[in-house]
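RECORD TYPE: inverse folding
INPUT: structure tokens
STRUCTURE:
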């Protein structure tokens, strides 16, 4: 069973993202979405800088988002074909709920930029955990829209980066397991180097 909500540990052990294209209604209502984001705000944040922003794209603005993506894509890739443009529209219309998360490091802080960017990723993970704990599924996407300055400018300024598009809804088909790393392949026990004689 994926996203088992019987206990916090069960949820963490069974966490599985949902593919945004497979997330359907019902999605979270406004109060549930707010609760999810408030949980995400509890992410580790060295220096209490809040170096992230959450932008909710409501259902009635998805067509405008699709148009923004299309215009930005055509500006970057004038030779774009019909299928590429359709993919931008499909991207914008996935899942009932969408939160765009920006990484917005605070300049001139003693906290390194890298730590602030890591905090944005942690905020997205907390948002995803909150969605799963509330009986939904979340899917975190990046792709071309996350790296387009034109798309970024629709949500923030030049000091921001799109850390991800978080789509939230109810899986329309059973979630499937994906390959996971083998513990022994990615975990080791540190031992200090012994001095050479």
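DESIGNED SEQUENCE:
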């Amino acid at each position: 069973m994926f996203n088992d909500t019987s206990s916090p540990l069960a949820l963490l052990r069974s966490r599985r993202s949902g593919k945004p294209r497979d997330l359907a209604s019902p999605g979270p209502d406004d109060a549930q979405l707010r609760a999810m984001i408030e949980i995400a705000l509890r992410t580790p944040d060295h220096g209490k800088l809040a170096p992230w922003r959450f932008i909710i794209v409501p259902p009635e603005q998805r067509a405008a988002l699709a148009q923004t993506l299309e215009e930005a894509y055509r500006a970057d890739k004038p030779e774009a074909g019909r299928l590429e443009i359709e993919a931008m529209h499909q991207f914008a219309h996935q899942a009932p709920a969408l939160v765009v998360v920006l990484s917005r490091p605070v300049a001139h802080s003693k906290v390194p930029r890298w730590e602030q960017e890591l905090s944005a990723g942690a905020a997205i993970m907390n948002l995803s955990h909150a969605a799963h704990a509330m009986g939904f599924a979340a899917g975190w996407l990046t792709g071309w829209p996350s790296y387009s300055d034109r798309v970024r400018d629709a949500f923030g300024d030049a000091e921001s980066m799109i850390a991800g598009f978080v789509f939230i809804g109810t899986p329309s088909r059973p979630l499937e397991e994906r390959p996971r790393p083998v513990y022994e392949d990615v975990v080791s026990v540190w031992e200090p180097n012994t001095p050479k004689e």
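NOTES: The radius of gyration is 19 Å.
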